[in-house]
Structures are given as C-alpha cells and as structure tokens.
C-alpha cells in the first residue's frame, strides 16, 4: 500500500516537473522566433475580445483560436456561466469594457462538458457544485422537452451546452455595464460559440439575442447622463459657492478662532511667572492642537 502511494507520488511529481520543463521549451521556442518577444509582451496588453469559457482543460481559448498571449482577455468557470451577482465575472466584464475597451464578448461553451452533463442528472456532486450547477439546471428545465428527444447522451449534452451559451449571451446583455456601453458610445457585441471537442471546430451560433434591441424590456435599463449637462454643472457650482459662504460655517469658524485666542491668552497669564521658553512651547502646542481642531471642523463642513 505504502509503495503504491510512493509510486503514485513520484509519478505526479514527474507530471508537475514536466510543466516547468515545458515552460522552458516555450520560452526557448518563442525567443528563437523573436528575441524581443517577451520584452514586447511586457509593454502591455491590447486584447480585442473578452472570452468567457469553461474551465475544461480541453477548451483552451488561445490554442483553439490560434491567438497569442495579449490577444484575448479570458474568464473561465465551470460550464461558462454568467451569474448576475458573481463579483469575479462582473469585475472582469467591467475591466474589459471600461479599461481595455474591448468591443466583443464571446461566450464559449463546448461539447462533452462535464458541468453540463452533471446538471442533467439528479446525483449530487457536492454542496457548492450543486449550487453552481443550478444555473445550468434552470436552462435544462426550460428546454428539457427538446433536449430529451435526443437519444444519444452526448447529443443531449451538446444540445444543452448550446442552449446554455444562448442563455449566457442573454445574461451578458442584462449586465448594466454592457448595456451602458452602448450609451457611452462604446458599443459592445456579444457572441455565442460552441467548441466541438470531437472535431476541434468552433460553431458560431446564430443567436437573435446577439442584438441588444432584442433584450426583453424588463431588463432594459435607462441610464442618467454620465457627464453633468452645462446647466446642471452651473447649478452644482453655484450650490458649492453658496455652501462656502454659508453663515453657519462662518459662525463656526469665528467661534473656533475666538476659542483659540482665549485659550492662548489664558495660558499666557497662567504661565507669566514661568520660564519664558516653557511658556512659548506650551502656547505653541495648544495653538497647534486647536488649529487641528479648527481644520477638522472646517473640513467636516
Ligand atoms: Zn465544460
């Protein structure tokens, strides 16, 4: 038993070491083609797409699209799901649109997806995973009559993977950041792909939901203008001026100033017989404390 564990551990370590050796080979190959390759890559990224795909190791986005590092901004999770409250995916979407300025978002599902397959079964796969798969089950429930007509399980998985892509495209459209991109003059398009593991080809899905206008009115959002209109801006400035001249702030300031002067006078009288240096030091300290108090009160307003 122990020998078996040792043997398995060594075998796993070898696989791990192979990955690091693979990296050395990769660097050697790239620098042989272009000695400046990594220096150029370090200067920044300018991806044209955001791809949301499945974590499945058989669907590596760069490899199957023959793209290089720096060309696709990628987010992956189990079964390429866009959950509206997922902080992680929402940060990726916001960064891709607002900072990287991508114009295309691709949802990529794939055939033989383990997540999709598990979602069609009733066997539990564990607490958190079951929760996550509920996102897929919702899609399955919606289309089960169509999917269950297919005899072959692989076909049923492919069909649900396809339906899931359509649903996630819609979820991307429902996203406020994506919707707002159109109003901000930076229109983002959303596409659906199904990667066929068995052939290596990507099928571009014809999805009527690719057009934002087809999004249900229930989810359509109207945004307030980002930049204040000139008249509105003027009103804000006038209000700020008014606030600065406010009698209550002025009174408070005068009150603090008067308190400061009184405190200094009192201390000067108390310490009139003391050493001149000590007196000076104490007065300075009190002044400093009161001035801080005064600054704080003024800032606070
Ligand atoms: Zn998958």
Automatic annotation (TrEMBL):
Coiled-coil region(s): 257-284
Residues that hold Zn(2+) according to the record: 54, 56, 110, 113
Region annotation (Disordered) ranges: 228-248
Keyword Aminoacyl-tRNA synthetase annotated: no
Domain of life: Eukaryota
Catalytic reaction annotation: hydrogencarbonate + H(+) = CO2 + H2O
EC number(s) recorded for this UniProt protein: 4.2.1.1
Enzyme class: lyase
Sequence similarity: Belongs to the beta-class carbonic anhydrase family.
PANTHER family found in the cross-reference section: CARBONIC ANHYDRASE (PTHR11002:SF76)
Annotated function: Reversible hydration of carbon dioxide.
Stated name of the protein: Carbonic anhydrase
Biological source species: Paramecium pentaurelia
């Amino acid at each position: 038993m122990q020998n078996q564990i040792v043997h398995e551990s060594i075998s796993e370590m070898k696989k791990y070491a192979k990955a690091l050796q693979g990296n050395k080979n990769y660097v050697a190959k790239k620098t042989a083609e272009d000695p400046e390759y990594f220096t150029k890559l370090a200067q920044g990224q300018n991806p044209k797409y955001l791809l949301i795909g499945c974590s499945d190791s058989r669907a590596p986005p760069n490899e199957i699209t023959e793209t290089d590092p720096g060309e696709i901004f990628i987010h992956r999770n189990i079964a390429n799901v866009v959950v509206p409250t997922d902080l992680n995916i929402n940060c990726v979407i916001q960064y891709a649109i607002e900072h990287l300025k991508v114009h295309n978002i691709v949802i990529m599902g794939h055939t033989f997806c383990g997540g999709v397959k598990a979602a069609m079964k009733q066997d539990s796969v564990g607490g958190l995973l079951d929760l996550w798969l509920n996102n897929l089950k919702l899609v399955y429930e919606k289309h089960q009559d169509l999917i269950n007509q297919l005899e072959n399980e692989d076909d049923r998985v492919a069909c649900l993977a396809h339906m899931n892509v359509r649903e996630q495209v819609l979820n991307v459209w429902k996203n406020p950041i994506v919707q707002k991109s159109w109003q901000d003059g930076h229109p983002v398009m959303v596409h659906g792909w199904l990667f066929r593991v068995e052939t290596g080809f990507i099928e571009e899905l014809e999805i009527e939901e690719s057009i934002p206008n087809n999004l249900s009115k229930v989810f359509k959002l109207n945004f307030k203008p980002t930049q204040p209109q000139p008249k509105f801006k003027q009103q804000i400035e006038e209000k700020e001026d008014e606030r600065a001249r406010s009698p209550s702030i002025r009174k408070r300031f005068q009150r603090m100033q008067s308190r400061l002067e009184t405190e200094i006078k009192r201390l000067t009288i108390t310490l009139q017989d003391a050493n001149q240096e000590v007196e000076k030091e104490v007065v300075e300290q009190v002044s400093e404390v009161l001035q801080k108090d005064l600054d704080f009160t003024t800032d606070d307003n």
